[in-house]
Amino acid sequence: MNLFDMSLDKNPANYVSLSPLTFLKRAADVYPNKPACVHGEQTFTWAETYIRCVKLASALSRKGIKKGDTVSAMLPNIPAMFELHFAVPMLGAVLHTINT
Fold first, then answer.
1. Domains of the chain by range and CATH?
2. Residues 6+ apart with CB under 8 A from 79
3. What sign does the dihedral 38-90-84-17 (CA atoms) show?
């Protein structure tokens, strides 16, 4: 038997299911002051990125975006595009990227 054949029942001590959204929240909780996004002279920490994504999701919601909607974004690889990858799914919507 090798190490990878051993199995344990999944529990909070040995298993955490991560989706992109739970990854973002966990990164903000565990590494709040570590850089998440660096663009030129701009740097956003994981805590800042989480807050910005929540605010962006809230703004999209106020514009009428809801679960099941598709949001298209035509942007280069800038912080706003990075944040859309989290903010849109926060609403249950789907991001359609048109990367320039």
1. 19-97 (3.40.50.980)
2. 37, 39, 42, 44, 52
3. positive
Characterize the bridge pairing of strands 94-97 and 70-73: parallel
- Other C-beta atoms lying within 10 Å of the C-beta of residue 84: 19
CA–CA–CA angle 58, 18, 14 (5° rounding): 140
pTM: 0.81
77 token code pair: 């690889």
**All residues at 6 or more sequence positions from 68 whose CB lies less than 8 Å from its CB, including other chains:** 92, 93, 94
Question: Residue 86 — pLDDT band, cuts 50, 70, 90?
Answer: very high
